[in-house]
Write a structure and sequence with these properties.
The chain has 10 helices and 7 strands. With about 250 residues, it is α/β, with parallel strands linked by helices. Strands 1-2-3-4-5-6-7 form a 7-stranded parallel sheet. Helix 9 packs across helix 10. The mean pLDDT is about 95.
Length: about 250
């Protein structure tokens, strides 16, 4: 596993990917996520439980607050709502989501938001819970401009994955043209959603270059402008990562 990770990180470096965020989706794998961040100065961690996770631990806000004290933890999440894979009463997802928001506000670290088939409820809860106090990022964004605008109004960033490079992502491409450059991030959502020309294959950090290239093409700007701006955006949003980089 370590040898495989070393190769992944080498390919990322070769493709000009300097810094990464290793995102937690459950508490059972969180120690491994944290260990990766502890072993690599250019990788940071988050702590949280994905809305689809049902078999593992469901943390309270206080538990998340305690785990988020680690200096390598720069964000709370992945959290949010997902009505695509879960059916019935979604109160348990909404309660979990609110716990994550409460924790993020308490520790002053941004949220990583997942939303699927639940955009209206996601935005409503963010607004009700005053999530602008901590901010965050709409991860792997696929929604329309109205949702993007509501997120931007809360001080959130919009992150685009390999989906942006897909030929049929016409509406998403239009959103990507409108989001202010100082609020855009790019990501992999690895191992899923590899961009063209690797669509259908296992995704990895090296491939995020293709998302940045496509974003530059859509906006009619230079690739270097995208890479410099998204790097600056990353460290502005994840201020704990900036503090670690400067130390």
């Amino acid at each position: 596993m370590d040898q495989e990770l070393d190769q992944v990180l080498l390919r990322a470096k070769e493709n000009q990917v300097g810094y990464m965020l290793c995102v937690s989706i459950n508490l059972e794998a969180y120690p491994e996520v944290l260990a990766i961040a502890e072993q690599h100065a250019n990788i940071f961690a988050s702590v949280g439980v994905h809305p689809n996770e049902q078999s593992g631990a469901d943390p309270t806000a206080n538990q998340l607050i305690k785990l988020a004290q680690h200096e390598r933890v720069v964000a709370i999440g992945e959290t949010g709502l997902d009505y695509f894979r879960c059916e019935g009463d979604m109160t348990w997802q909404q309660d979990r989501f609110r716990n994550h928001i409460q924790a993020a506000k308490e520790v002053s670290k941004p949220l990583i938001i997942h939303t699927r088939d639940a955009a209206e409820d996601t935005m409503s809860i963010l607004e009700q819970e005053s999530a602008e106090q901590c901010g965050g990022v709409m991860h792997c964004f696929v929604e329309n401009w109205d949702i993007a605008k509501r997120a931007l109004d809360l001080g959130f960033y919009i992150s685009f994955s390999g989906i942006l490079t897909f030929k049929n992502a016409t509406d998403l491409k239009e959103v990507a043209k409108k989001v202010p450059m100082d609020r855009i991030l790019v990501e992999t959502d690895a191992p899923y959603l590899a961009p063209v020309p690797y669509r259908g294959k296992s995704n990895e950090p090296a491939y995020v270059m293709h998302v940045a290239e496509h974003l530059a093409e859509l906006r009619g700007i230079k690739f270097r402008e995208v890479t410099e701006q998204t790097t600056a955006n990353f460290f502005r949003l994840f201020s704990q990562a900036e503090a670690l980089r400067a130390a």
